[in-house]
Target: HTH-type transcriptional repressor KstR2
Amino acid sequence: MPRPSPTREAPRRGRPGYDQETVLRHAIDLFNRRGYDGTSVGDLARELGLTKSAIYHHFPSKSYLLQAALTEALDALEEVVDTAATAGEDSGPSAYARLESVLRQAVGVLVEHLPAVTLLLRVHGNSDVELDALRRRREIDAKLAALVRAAADEGSLRADIPPELTSRLLFGMVNSLVEWYRPEGRYDAAGVADAVIRIAFEGLALRGE
Model:
């Protein structure tokens, strides 16, 4: 069965107050709370006080909703990584500076798209849509590892740890924000990004002069 393409057109109006974007936001919330497999279009319709046909007016199937949510998160992350990769061309910023920028911007993406990124990190490849999302995640991971390797090659990072492992540890720290970060909490995105950068590149230990 061919994979559905993500819905990209401008929001269409259905029942007053429930455009395509609103339906997607509620769907992501339900998928995170109840699990994708444990949520039906009927559940979403009841949540919004709509009929199932009203949901289908915006999205032809539940899988389209999932793909739209995962595409939101993946597109934002890919943009950050791809921008850092191309910025090094023609004597651009060092690999170290680009890696630091990616970490900082990745925190921003996670905070801005917290529900969608949370959903992305919970998929297991149970459908074609999820398998495609996992493939795109692997591609992002490979680009990050290449950036870590470039920073080690230029002498900015220690080279005794495999770049793939360093990349997983760094972005595992960023991804862990989905478990505890709340926009209304005591830490803002800039403060969290600063802490990630300092811990990742300076460490926690106090060293004497």
Remarks:
- The longest helix spans residues 62-87.
- The chain has two domains: 20-58, 69-202.
- Confidence is low (pLDDT under 50) at residues 7-17.
